[in-house]
Each structure stands twice: as structure tokens, then as C-alpha cells.
Design brief:
globular, 158 residues, single chain, mainly alpha, 2 domains, 7 helices
Length: 158
């Protein structure tokens, strides 16, 4: 599934040089990002639910350390390249560095005037998800919330 998501995103970003038989795929290529989000939600949710069922709690420290070392080193390396090599930028300017370091670069993103490293928006969403999902699952289990409240919380997280 990840390979399909990657291929969809790559074809979507390929541009005008795509062969004519791939144009229908290119037009829906943005759904690859959605597929990544669904896969992440399922995999992380499954991991957290399994842990809470086995131990009765969630080790936030272990969860956040694993997420940090899986994503942040590569992200920082790419961010350093974008900041230090201006020819890599595809847009008119780089938003403030703090927006990237706090994963808030996706708030107020101007889709019409793409800024440098604008495609980091999806990683921002992913990190925000990683921040909120464990807390949400823990709260639901800790307070043993009623079904109506549970559905409300789940609906708000979507």
C-alpha cells in the first residue's frame, strides 16, 4: 500500500511530461497522501490500542522517542539543505524556520504561491496526528467514556 501511495504522489508531482496514458492517474495522484494518512492512522492506532490492552496504559515516552528518531533526523537534514542551498527552493521564499521546527508550517499555507519546502505540509499533519492520537486514545480508555462521547471525540479527531 505504501508503494502505491508513493507512486501516486510521484506521478502527481511529475508535471507535464507524464505520458498520456498516465494522465488519469496523475489527476488523482494527490490521493496518495490520503492513503499515507489512512495507513499511518491504522498502524499507529493499532500499535497504541494493542499497548493499552496489554499494559493498561500507553508509554508516551517510548512512543514519542520512537516517532522522533524515525522522522526528525531525516527531516532536519532536508531542512538544513533547503536553508543552506537556496537553489533547491521551488518557491518565492522560505517561511520562517520556526514554522518548520514546530510543525506549524501547514497553518495558513498559501496554496497559490508555493513557498520553499511547501510540501512539508503533509509531514506537519502527520506530526500533529502523532502528538494528539496517543493522548486521545489514553483519555478515552482512562475515563472509560460513554459511546456518545467516544464517537464525538473520534469525529473531532478526523
Amino acid at each position: 500500500m505504501r508503494a502505491i501511495a508513493i507512486i501516486l504522489v510521484l506521478i502527481f508531482h511529475y508535471g507535464r511530461g507524464v505520458p498520456s496514458w498516465l494522465i488519469p492517474v496523475q489527476q488523482i495522484g494527490w490521493t496518495g497522501v490520503d492513503l499515507f494518512f489512512v495507513l499511518s492512522g491504522y498502524l499507529i492506532g493499532h500499535q497504541l490500542l494493542k499497548e493499552i490492552n496489554n499494559t493498561g496504559t500507553i508509554s508516551f515516552t517510548r512512543f514519542y522517542i520512537k516517532r522522533f528518531f524515525r522522522i526528525i533526523p531525516a527531516y532536519i537534514a532536508v531542512l538544513v539543505l533547503y536553508c543552506s542551498l537556496p537553489n533547491l527552493s521551488e518557491g518565492s521564499g522560505m517561511p520562517p524556520l520556526w514554522r518548520f521546527l514546530t510543525f506549524t508550517q501547514n497553518f495558513g499555507l498559501d496554496a497559490q504561491n508555493h513557498n520553499s519546502f511547501s510540501h512539508a505540509w503533509s509531514l506537519c499533519i502527520e506530526e500533529q496526528f502523532y502528538l494528539l492520537l496517543p493522548i486521545t486514545i489514553f483519555t478515552i480508555f482512562y475515563f472509560r467514556l460513554q459511546k456518545g462521547t467516544l464517537y464525538l471525540i473520534l469525529g473531532l479527531t478526523v
